[in-house]
Specification:
This protein is of the alpha+beta class and 62 residues long. The chain is built from one helix and three strands, in the order βββα.
Amino acid sequence: MIPPEDTSVHSLPGKASVAEGFVLLDGPNGVAVTMTAYAASETGKSLIEAARMIEEKTESDK
């Protein structure tokens, strides 16, 4: 488990935008990713599923 004080863990969301037919993801500390629409869509689905799994585990640990 990553300690909460680890500075590589971000609690602020990234911001997605569109430029020249690509999806740009700008995140904290200069993180920047350029993706195709397909890659962005699949990444979004994967992120949502991973977050859902953590939320479910957190709820079951209570």
